Structure to design on (158 residues):
């Protein structure tokens, strides 16, 4: 792991978070790590949480859907699900997050930079409160997740 690529989390408005990071791998490989369930489940959950990803169903195409289930067992699990609204390999994935009652939208752009990839993740929440919660929750884990993605990419490129 290079350790030199920083994850930058920035609040762009009351309802939008933007996260950027450069990865030392071509965009097509970074895109695969986001779109192939067998790769995605290897890096998505921060290991420090100690909560496994129990199920990872992903049909990454425009109109497809996903369902991710976290938890130690079926009785104590939490599911996240939604639909892919725009998938343009290897440059863009847009999906909805529908589990909370209010739908938020996540957009991930993969910009090829001569063998490296600038990844820009934008999350648009239906309310300021939803964005506030994300900053305290899921966004806090992104640097750990992206470090794990770095490790996976080093393996895939290497």
């Amino acid at each position: 792991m290079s350790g030199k690529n920083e994850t930058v989390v920035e609040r762009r408005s009351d309802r939008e978070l933007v996260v950027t990071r450069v990865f030392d791998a071509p965009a097509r490989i970074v895109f695969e790590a986001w779109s192939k369930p067998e790769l995605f489940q290897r890096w998505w959950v921060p290991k420090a949480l100690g909560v496994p990803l129990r199920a990872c169903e992903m049909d990454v195409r425009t109109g497809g859907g996903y369902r991710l289930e976290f938890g130690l067992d079926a009785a104590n699990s939490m599911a996240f699900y939604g639909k892919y609204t725009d998938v343009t390999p290897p440059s863009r994935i847009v999906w909805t997050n529908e589990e909370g009652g209010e739908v938020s939208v996540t957009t991930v752009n993969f910009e090829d930079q001569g063998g490296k990839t600038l990844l820009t993740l934008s999350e648009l929440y239906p309310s300021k409160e939803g964005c506030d919660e994300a900053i305290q929750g899921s966004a806090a884990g992104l640097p750990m997740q992206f470090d794990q993605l770095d490790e996976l990419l080093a393996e895939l490129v290497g």
